[in-house]
Amino acid sequence: MQVADQRTTTPAPNDTHPPARPARRPWVARLKRDRWLLLFGLPGLLVILTFHYIPLLGNVIAFKDYQPYLGIQESPWNGLANFAVIFNGDPAFLNALGNTLIITALQVVFVFPLPICLALVLNSLLSDRLKRLVQSILYLPHFMSWVIVVAIFQQMLGNAGLISNWLLRNGHDAVHIIGNSDVFKELITAQVIWKDCGWGTILFLAALSHIDIQLYEASGVDGASRWRQLWHVTLPGIRPVIILLLILRLGDILTVGFEQIVLQQQAVGTQVSEVLDTYVYNNGILAGNWGASAAVGLVKGLIGVALVLGANKLAHIFGEKGIYQK
Amino acid sequence: MSASSSAVPPWAGPRRPSPPRRPGAYTGQPPPKLPMRALKGVALAICCLLVVGPFLAVVATSLADAEQVNAAGGLVLWPDNPNLNAYRAILAGGIVTRSIVVSVCITLVGTALSLTFTALLAYSLSRPGSFLSKPMLLTVLFTLLFSPGIIPSYLMVKQLGLLDSYWALILPTMISGFNVIVMRAFFMELPQELIDSARIDGAGELATFVRIVLPLSKAVLAVVGLFYAVGYWNAFFNALLYLNDNAKWPLQLVLRSYVVNSSSLTPEQLDVSSLPPQQSLQMAILVLSLVPIALIYPFIQRHFTKGVLIGAVKG
User: Fold this and answer.
1) SS3 of residue B20 by DSSP
2) Residue A35: CB partners within 8 Å, gap ≥ 6?
3) Where is the composition biased (Polar residues) (chain A) (predicted)?
């Protein structure tokens, strides 16, 4: 049986003259003391190492002429040749990059602010029961897979879908939305909104509920209207959360719904729907251009990390907390 | 419920002097004017309808009879003679039944493994000052910042010989760093005195964890369990990537082929002699893929906010 150990006998925190910290135990003793805890963490850690860290090493194939039958180690090095698609501006790659950036821009402009507006409306509801009911309904699509969401959109907006049928029956032309490459980017933006707008309110609602009521009272005494209070109390109150989520979004700037797009790519063609992730998948795993695709994936990952770190630095400069402290 | 649900948890910021809000409570703001309230009501009603409406149409079509579906040329809004023919055909033992069994098994096994090892890892990271816990925590945190990429992940799975194995649907996504952080934060909120007193009473680490910590953590176990279960049930990408053999398809891939891509199901595939309209079949598959989530959702929904918040703020 174990006895109470060092952790449990630390001095009281408000002691004015804390005694000098007891000398650290040698690591063998600590290893022995915590052997059970380490054993607990081991399986989970092994899975993380196997599927998150070791594959990182697999990125070396970006610098190799990877041949599946030779394996990673035996394949010959070829320097930066794989990166030529990026630096020489291979048209397929540029098309994927362009589509990715357009879709990201659409999402930041249309998808990002909507949960904030929705949260503000929900927060201003006087009835708590109504608020919870609406929340329960709007959270639900978040738990549907993309396959389901795409299927439902097809049933509603497709050529033989509910809306087209209704229009035809009433003597109008059918709408042509699903499979129409001209509106594909708008369509997938709408799908993201339908799926995740409600879920996106969760963090904002929590932030809103922690704004001090006294701020509203004080501003009310000073004669502020509801709209003024929104501008000067509510929005500043949730600013840290908004900035946090913007930073996180920035890190994903080159990542736009892989599953969502793969599911619909057949219908509209790659010209409008190819994004970086689908390019890596189509060009690498399906077409077998392993090295070049890995190079694109690697550069994409590095840009993402750099953007998060950079944006976080920027947040610190502007006096916000960002995603982590220095 | 958790022991700490009544107190303001540390992630909620400093304790405010203002009282907590109750239903219809005082918000410090003047109540909005009537036109504004009406506008909000209408807007929210439309939002809810946009979410609920499609589901109702899908369920209605899956229940409708052949004549009505053919007359409508597609979705039906209200089934005149509701029947379960489409479900009977699907569940008769053909390709769809098999994929449902696969998905249910993957979800059950995967969630059990994920929850066990996530809880163990989170607990081992939650004890202050334990050996190597800092580097281990950093190892977990870094996974939130980057992902290895599609191709290296694929090669890893291939090299482990997991292609076309059901384990490829479980192992790569078994531990999510986000969920580990959520659980760790919850464990750290538990009163340390409880753990210390269990220790003094002679309980080892395992007994402390199983008998003291887990019973107090039902809320977080439920939320993280739901996140994992939904992840496994919805897993499409991994199956697409790692399973070439379509006899092994989980439900999501069947959904893609026969609903999204509208390939027709044949009587032989379903092991039946005659078929209801394809539209009803498609919608019945869709409904079956929604059922598990719809069943669990109401029970766990009230714990969402807490789980998500801990993860977002501490991660």
Assistant:
1) coil
2) none
3) 1-13
